[in-house]
């Protein structure tokens, strides 16, 4: 009986103190010396740091190859307007070539760190639908379905992900829909800028919790803001300083 009470206490305590999980924004690149955002090196750093997840941005070339880059352009060249053949030698700032999604997933597979896959909006809904199809197929090819979570600013992409794979975990980024609206659309979470939760709609964290909608916040690089969100019970924070926030978590264990 004593053991049972102890177990119940531990489970209860663990639930009560569930910590905010840290996601490295575009990988962990803010190292010393720094490396490039969205590089394989940044993903490896995030894996070594043992964060919950490592985020990265997916875009599509003109001939339908998925590549990893935040901006529409790389070194002044528009990704969506070029075939992969003419883009593959484009370098990131750390000297790596522009990575394909396939190459990125192969590195992702080497660790259990979650892959937080952002699909960037495209010029038409048709192109976005194609990006979703190709992304889900590639994730399936490497059997990474349980290790991958999806985010997007495009509501069409978020809906299409759920339509094509109802089991995919999807969070919406734009900040214009309430947790109730997100739940009604069948999307799993709200991943919003911290001002949305801390200023504009101070009731949304609580509303999301009550509805079972996942809460994630971007891009928090200030420890005081992190602590505020942690205290409010936000489940995930996406940051350029994952090492600093993991230390805050440690100090609060
Ligand atoms: Mg992103």
Summarize the structure.
The chain has helices at residues 2-16, 40-49, 101-108, 125-141, 155-164, 179-184, 194-200, 204-211, 223-231, 242-251; strands spanning 21-24, 53-60, 66-68, 73-74, 77-78, 99-100, 114-119, 148-152, 170-172, 189-193, 214-218, 236-239.
Shape: globular
What small molecules does this complex bind?
magnesium ion
Q: Could you give the order of strands across the largest sheet?
A: 1-2-7-8-9-10-11-12
Encode the helix/strand succession as letters.
Answer: HEHEEEEEHEHEHEHEHHEHEH
End-to-end distance: 27 Å
Strands, count: 12
Question: Could you outline the blueprint of secondary structure elements for this entry?
Answer:
Layout: H1 2-16, E1 21-24, H2 40-49, E2 53-60, E3 66-68, E4 73-74, E5 77-78, E6 99-100, H3 101-108, E7 114-119, H4 125-141, E8 148-152, H5 155-164, E9 170-172, H6 179-184, E10 189-193, H7 194-200, H8 204-211, E11 214-218, H9 223-231, E12 236-239, H10 242-251
Parallel strand pairs: 1-2, 1-12, 2-7, 7-8, 8-9, 9-10, 10-11, 11-12
Antiparallel strand pairs: 2-3, 3-6, 4-5
Helix pairs in contact: 2-3, 4-5
The structure holds magnesium ion.
Walkthrough of the structure:
- Helix 5 links the parallel strand 8 (148-152) and strand 9 (170-172).
- The protein has helices spanning 2-16, 40-49, 101-108, 125-141, 155-164, 179-184, 194-200, 204-211, 223-231, 242-251, and strands at residues 21-24, 53-60, 66-68, 73-74, 77-78, 99-100, 114-119, 148-152, 170-172, 189-193, 214-218, 236-239.
- The mean pLDDT is 95.
- Helix 2 (40-49) packs parallel to helix 3 and helix 4 crosses helix 5.
- By secondary structure, it is an alpha/beta fold.
- The chain starts with a helix and ends with a helix.
- An eight-stranded parallel beta barrel has the order 1-2-7-8-9-10-11-12, surrounded by seven helices. The chain has a two-stranded antiparallel sheet with strand order 4-5.
- It has ten helices and twelve strands.
- The chain binds magnesium ion (MG).
């Amino acid at each position: 009986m004593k053991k049972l009470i102890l177990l119940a206490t531990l489970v209860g305590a663990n639930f009560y103190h569930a910590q905010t999980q840290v996601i490295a924004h575009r990988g962990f690149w803010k190292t010393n010396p720094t490396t490039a955002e969205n590089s394989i090196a940044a993903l490896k750093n995030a894996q070594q740091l043992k964060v919950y997840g490592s985020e990265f941005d997916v875009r599509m070339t003109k001939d339908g190859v998925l590549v990893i880059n935040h901006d529409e352009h790389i070194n002044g060249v528009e990704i969506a307007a070029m075939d992969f053949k003419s883009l593959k030698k484009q370098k990131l700032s750390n000297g790596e070539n522009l990575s394909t999604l396939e190459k990125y997933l192969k590195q992702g597979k080497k660790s259990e760190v979650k892959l937080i896959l952002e699909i960037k909006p495209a010029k038409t809904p048709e192109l976005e639908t194609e990006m979703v199809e190709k992304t889900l197929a590639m994730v399936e090819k490497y059997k990474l379905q349980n290790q991958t979570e999806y985010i997007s600013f495009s509501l069409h992409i978020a809906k299409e992900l759920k339509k094509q794979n109802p089991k995919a975990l999807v969070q919406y980024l734009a900040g214009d829909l309430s947790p109730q609206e997100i739940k009604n659309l069948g999307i799993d979470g709200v991943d919003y800028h911290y001002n949305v939760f801390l200023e504009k709609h101070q009731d949304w964290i609580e509303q999301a919790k009550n509805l079972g909608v996942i809460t994630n916040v971007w891009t928090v690089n200030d420890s005081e803001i992190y602590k505020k969100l942690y205290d409010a019970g936000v489940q995930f924070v996406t940051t350029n300083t994952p090492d600093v926030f993991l230390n805050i978590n440690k100090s609060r264990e």
